[in-house]
Amino acid sequence: MEISDNTIERVCKVFGYLEYLEQVGCEYISSKNLAKYIGTTEYTVRKDISLIGVTGYDRKGYPVSRFKRELGEKLDLSKEKSACIAGLGRIGSAILDYEEFREDGFNIIAGFDTNINKLERIRTKIEVYPVSCMENIIKQKGIELGIIAVPTGSAQNTAERLISAGIKGILNFAPVKLEIPEGIIYLDMDLTNSLRFISAKLATQTRKLKGGNDV
Amino acid sequence: MEISDNTIERVCKVFGYLEYLEQVGCEYISSKNLAKYIGTTEYTVRKDISLIGVTGYDRKGYPVSRFKRELGEKLDLSKEKSACIAGLGRIGSAILDYEEFREDGFNIIAGFDTNINKLERIRTKIEVYPVSCMENIIKQKGIELGIIAVPTGSAQNTAERLISAGIKGILNFAPVKLEIPEGIIYLDMDLTNSLRFISAKLATQTRKLKGGNDV
DNA sequence: GGGTGTGAAGATTTTCACAGCA
DNA sequence: TGCTGTGAAAATCTTCACACCC
């Protein structure tokens, strides 16, 4: 049985909400309230959870801590995961800043850049290295995820180096589609395409309100 | 007839590829090659295009320029759109940098921040203003899209100000889910959730390879 | 009453088969 | 032959109905 991307995306959102609920001390949460938060129906939430294979929660809703723990185990989100950033330009270092103080299960523990001078200037708690050390450091520290924030022209090459060092998951901020082999999970964070999506959705939605456009 | 988000997302990717193809001087492209690029099947590409309502391209594939123009009209991606950024911290200014030199149909023409001192230091060609001017500037310049890059605690309030100024589409970089009214299109760029998705997908995929986990 | 879990029904999306064009 | 465009079939996803529990 194959779990769909939509299901995975929704349960990840559920997991994020559970982290919040645990922090604020909420003990139980119903499928109805989960659904409201992540923007779907209670049926879909229950079905998703059932598909993931986490069950046995009768009566008063899902007990937040236990549910989070069990869901996290199935999704491999329970233990901290380490990540690295390739490219410490403005985007790369903004991401570092952004993640450095968050408590969300991901640890960015290394950064790489070709510009050695830049490395000296970066004021951050994570360790930064020249790109030539990438393979070694990733293997040595057992880093699992890679974030690409290099210029467009170097993105494909960077991806290949990350993969050959053993990275299995890649998040790409460079505005280019990468050629990635089977088995590696790869996601684009493409600002332009997101803006396109918003515009296009606005356009098709408006068209519908106007009563259909000769279609 | 309602066009699904998946279809919109795919045709947006097609549109982005067409921009590239036009730049490199490619004249014709087939549904098969579009499919290969965006990672789907040729049937889906043709069906999507048909659903959007752009037809009449027989024989040797889609003529890039004409096809891009007609698709762009349907999706409202033909004319340049203006956007603004709320929050000029590290993420906000990284986005400015990133977009300033790109030629992709979106123009970030204003930035807002509460910290007046910061405004003086920002070295960019776009105009930056204190948040108090937000409503006026957006209305005056007819800005259509808003990018939220403020700290988590101010994100909801910022969204409300953008919407009351007339913004219809919002891209949110703050790691919090916003409460947004019907009719406004809203998309999260959530780094943590993207990393979760990659981890979870890796986990479910691996599980499958191992032969199923008692499900 | 309020809640979960799940098979079956219903709706939607994707795939396919093939008409039609040059 | 190589391609688009689309109705119909197949596959998938979502919703529902209801068993079961407190």
Q: If you had to describe this structure to a student in words, what would you say it looks like?
A:
Two copies of one chain form a homodimer. A six-stranded parallel β-sheet of chain A has the order 5-4-3-6-7-8, with helices on both faces. Chain A has a two-stranded antiparallel sheet with strand order 1-2. Chain A is globular and about 60 Å long. Chain A has 215 residues and is of the alpha/beta class. Helix content of chain A is 50%, strand content 16%. Chain A has nine helices and eight strands. The first copy, chain A, folds into two domains: 5-75, Arc Repressor Mutant, subunit A (Orthogonal Bundle), CATH 1.10.10; 81-193, 3-Layer(aba) Sandwich (Rossmann fold), CATH 3.40.50.720. In chain A, β6, α8 and β7 form a beta-alpha-beta unit. The structure holds a DNA duplex (22 and 22 nucleotides).
Task: Put the structure in a nutshell.
Two copies of one chain form a homodimer. With 215 residues, chain A is an alpha/beta fold.
The percent range for helix content of chain A is 40-55%
The dominant shape of chain A is: globular
Helix/strand order of chain A, N-terminal first: HEHHEHEHEHEHEHEEH
**Overall pLDDT of chain A:** 91
Number of folding domains of chain A?
A: 2
Strand tally of chain A? 8
User: What portion of the residues of chain A fall into strands of 2 or more residues?
Assistant: 15-25%
Straight-line N-to-C gap of chain A: 37 Å
